[in-house]
């Protein structure tokens, strides 16, 4: 018996079979009237351009040098896609393919992504640029690329079955359009979208303004929010899950393996956030009142900025926040508390306050070494894991991780640090607070304190 999904796929395939161009490289449909006759790009796929920003183990300490009138973004744990110029057009090459990905040591998966990574490399260009983006499909099924939020001709929108036939395995297609706006945008498939996005196919697309806006930023970061269903003992994401996710990531990493965002005291910092997960994320930054300065529509006029400490980034939305950096190691995280825990933090029965000693003794008769936990809180679980008393299931990370200067941070998932120093020289390490500016224990309460 054919199911509903198979029927839809079969119907769509049949509808467009007669219209497919039988060529290894074909043009995406376009309503654009720009003359391409003097180019050979419809019959030739270029070499992948050299990477302009290599993937790094840590966020760069030195701020990116300005090029072409803008300061390039930094993608923590990621990189920016290279391009080449061809008769005034910026040419890029995206390769949709299976990738091996590591959320953190001990938690690896087979995912789908672009150019060897998930998320795919960040695309950067300037308002007014004409871009030509080749897409090669090395996946086992067809795909497309949708340029989320970008104004372009209908035939370049990347919707399988609506604006184009799908890109079959082994084919290369090309999208070409002029960038008419600026702001923070994203790209992702619009073919078998539920599966392909759940497998990790997405990336950021940053368009810088042609005329720089004021005030300028000193550091510019791009962070893509996502969720994953990678069940214990498995090595591929489960695309059928809609609500019960195991991992919450920034640029497909979990804390403490997310690069810190570094800055120097007094610098203006922008964090561009995109959300292609299945949940909204109230993103909270400690230590400052930031300005919300932009959304999918680009940077707002300054009189429309608003002060916040937490900003919800909705599903399918982008948000830009800006702030003046003040010294410290400031937490930056989603304020949905279960989004700052890893897989083992979900679906555990609530035994808080329960006396489990008798049950533990009975179970030990059947399972020697069994330990009941959770009586005093979730941190108790992590203590047993750390001591080696309770190893986790295969291919999982502990629910709470990270060592700070004063002990365990007990965080995971969508959590990282904004590290700000007066002077940056290499790895900033842990912040050392000035005398008299840190909480401390007391031996005796002052008399007469109201309660």
UniProtKB/TrEMBL annotation:
Molecular function terms from GO: copper ion binding; oxidoreductase activity
Family annotation (Pfam families): Cu-oxidase_2 (PF07731), Cu-oxidase_3 (PF07732)
Domain of life: Bacteria
Domain named Plastocyanin-like: residues: 104-210, 242-346
UniProt-listed SUPFAM superfamilies: Cupredoxins
Basic and acidic residues: compositionally biased ranges: 32-44
Stretch forming the signal peptide: 1-23
Region of interest (Disordered), residue spans: 27-55, 427-451
Keyword Isomerase set for record: no
InterPro entries linked: Cu-oxidase-like_N, Cu-oxidase_C, Cu-oxidase_fam, Cu_oxidase_Cu_BS, Cupredoxin
CDD domains for the chain: CuRO_1_2dMco_1, CuRO_D2_2dMcoN_like
Record's keyword terms, sorted: Metal-binding, Oxidoreductase, Signal
Protein name from the UniProt record: Copper oxidase
Organism expressing this protein natively: Cellvibrio polysaccharolyticus
Lineage: Bacteria, Pseudomonadati, Pseudomonadota, Gammaproteobacteria, Cellvibrionales
């Amino acid at each position: 018996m054919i199911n509903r999904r198979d029927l839809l796929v079969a119907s769509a395939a049949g509808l467009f079979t007669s219209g497919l161009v039988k060529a290894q490289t074909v043009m995406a449909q376009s309503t654009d009237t720009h003359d391409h006759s003097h180019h050979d790009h419809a019959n030739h796929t270029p070499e992948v351009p050299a990477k302009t920003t290599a993937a790094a183990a840590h966020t760069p300490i030195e701020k990116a040098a300005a090029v072409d009138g803008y300061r390039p973004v930094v993608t923590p744990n990621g990189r920016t896609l290279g391009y080449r110029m061809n008769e005034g057009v910026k040419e890029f090459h995206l390769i949709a393919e299976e990738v091996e990905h590591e959320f953190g040591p001990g938690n690896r998966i087979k995912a789908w992504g672009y150019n060897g990574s998930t998320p795919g490399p960040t695309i950067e260009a300037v308002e007014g640029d004409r871009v030509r983006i080749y897409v090669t499909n090395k996946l086992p099924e067809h795909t497309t690329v949708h340029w989320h939020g970008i104004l372009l001709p209908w035939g370049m929108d990347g919707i399988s079955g609506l604006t184009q036939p799908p890109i079959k395995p082994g084919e290369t297609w090309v999208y070409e359009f002029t960038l008419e706006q600026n702001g923070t945008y994203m790209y992702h498939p619009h073919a078998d979208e539920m599966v392909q996005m759940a497998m990790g196919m997405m990336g950021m697309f940053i368009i810088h303004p042609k005329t720089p806006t004021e005030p300028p930023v000193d550091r510019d970061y791009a962070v893509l929010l996502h969720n994953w269903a990678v069940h214990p003992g498995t090595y591929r994401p489960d695309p059928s899950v809609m609500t019960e996710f195991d991992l919450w990531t920034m640029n497909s990493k979990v804390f403490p393996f997310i690069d810190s965002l570094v800055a120097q005291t007094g610098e203006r910092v922008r964090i561009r956030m995109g959300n292609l997960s299945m949940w909204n994320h109230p993103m909270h930054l400690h230590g400052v009142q930031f300005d919300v300065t932009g959304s999918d529509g680009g940077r707002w006029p300054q009189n429309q900025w608003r002060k916040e400490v937490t900003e919800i980034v909705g599903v399918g939305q982008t948000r830009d926040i800006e702030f003046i950096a003040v010294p410290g190691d400031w937490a930056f995280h989603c304020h949905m508390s279960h989004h700052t825990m890893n897989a083992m933090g979900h679906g555990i029965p609530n035994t808080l306050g329960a006396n489990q000693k008798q049950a533990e003794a009975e179970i030990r008769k059947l399972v020697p070494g069994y330990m009941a936990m959770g009586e005093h809180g979730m941190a108790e679980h992590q203590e047993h894991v750390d001591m080696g008393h309770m190893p986790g299931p295969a291919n999982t990370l502990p629910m709470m991780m990270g060592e700070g200067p004063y002990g365990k941070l007990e965080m995971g998932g969508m959590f990282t640090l904004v590290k700000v120093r007066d002077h940056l020289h290499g790895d900033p390490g842990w912040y050392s607070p000035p005398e008299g500016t840190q909480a401390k224990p007391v031996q005796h309460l002052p008399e007469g304190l109201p309660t």
